[in-house]
Amino acid sequence: MKMPSESALVTRFGVSRTVVREAGSRLQAAGLVESHQGKGSFVLMVPPDHRAGIKPSVANKPDDIAELIGLRLGVEVEAAGLAAAGRSDAEADSIIRAAAALRRIPAQTSQLLQADFDFHRQISRATGNRLYGELLESFGPAMIAYPAHRLPPLDQTNHIGPDEVICREHETIAEAIADGDVDSARAAMRLHLAGTRNRLSRNE
After folding, report:
1. Model-level pTM greater than 0.85?
2. Most buried pick, 58, 65, 123, 180, via CB within 10 A?
3. Per-residue pLDDT of the chain (204 residues; tens, 9 = 90+)
4. Cβ–Cβ < 8 Å for 176, 105
């Protein structure tokens, strides 16, 4: 089956060309889409046992994590802008609460990563485009990357306070979305994800 053109997808889903191209690249890499020069892209038959999304093992190496953050920049910067433009009051409250929750959670791996993922998932749901939410759901908490020194050993039981820089980055994003400030929301998300990439590169 032939896929719609890039322009048609941009118009239909209200996303940027960058988002469409990133999504197309991921589909081709997964073997779900095939492109022919001058003819367009075609959807291939999906095997019955196919499972969409990124498995945690895919993002274990530094290069894989860098690529994942690059994809998130293409998707989540636009998602933050859409959320700022169209979120409801209830969605804004949910995003603010999700950001605040990061300060109340001990820095234990599973809890911290889940809380961080929940924050980004709340933003995707506030875009008004269900595909953003479905895409992040397919990634799961494995999409969240933290430098190893910011997480304690799994068997450590004492409470470790939240990371102030990371908490503040999330709060800035949440505040911009709640204020309906599209440009600031995009800029704050870009700064957060670029900061994550830089923090990881310093600790390779």
Report:
1. no
2. 123
3. 678 888 888 787 777 888 778 777 777 766 677 777 777 777 765 544 444 455 544 555 667 778 888 899 999 999 999 999 999 999 999 999 999 998 887 655 567 788 899 999 999 999 999 999 999 888 887 788 665 545 444 444 444 455 788 889 999 999 999 999 999 999 999 999 998 888 777 655
4. no
Task: Please tell me the chain's helix, strand, coil percentages from 3-state DSSP, rounded to the nearest 5.
Answer: 65, 5, 30
Query: Is the Cβ–Cβ distance between 146 and 162 less than 8 Å?
Result: no
163 Cβ contact partners less than 8 Å away, ≥ 6 residues apart:
107, 150
Q: Is 61 buried (19+), middle (13-18) or exposed (0-12) by CB count in 10 A?
A: exposed
CB 142 within 8 A of CB 89: no
Q: What is the DSSP letter of 105?
A: S
Q: Which two tokens stand for residue 195?
A: 């900061």
End-to-end CA distance of the chain: 43
CA distances from 59 to 9, 11, 48 (A): 28, 31, 24
Paired with 34 in beta bridges are 42
